[in-house]
Amino acid sequence: MAADVLEQGRSLQPWQMSPSSVPKQAQKTAAPTAALARMSYWAGMAGWNAIAADPKDHPYRLEQEALDPVLPG
């Protein structure tokens, strides 16, 4: 999807996607190395290079549904 969006001259913007922004108490489950590599790969494909580097420094996994919703603004 990211490639299609880029072809249209637009970009996808991450919203609450950075592992470093998750509260420490929610960072419980360690992620396998292969999962971290996939997360980094897909973040990079979306053009989110800073976020693509984040899983290496924050090696856990968490479903976003476990977090309280936050709206922009």
Task: Give a brief rundown of this model.
With 73 residues, this protein is mainly alpha-helical.
Helix content: 25-40%
Task: Please indicate the percent range of residues in DSSP E strands (runs of 2 or more).
Answer: 5-15%
Q: Major sheet, described briefly?
A: 2 strands, antiparallel
Q: Given the C-alpha coordinates, what overall shape results?
A: globular
Q: Which stretches of 5+ consecutive residues score pLDDT under 50?
A: none
Number of strands: 2
Q: In sequence order, what are the helices and strands, one letter per element?
A: HEHHE
Return the structural class.
mainly alpha
Oligomer: single chain
Report the average pLDDT across residues.
Answer: 86
Strands across the major sheet, in which order?
1-2
List keywords for this structure.
single chain, 73 residues, mainly alpha, two-stranded antiparallel sheet, 3 helices, 38% helix
Can you characterise this structure?
The chain is mainly α and 73 residues long. It has a domain of 36 residues. It contains three helices and two strands; from the N terminus they run αβααβ. It has a two-stranded antiparallel ribbon with strand order 1-2. The protein is globular, with a radius of gyration of 13 Å. It starts with a helix and ends in a 12-residue tail after the last strand. The mean pLDDT is 86.
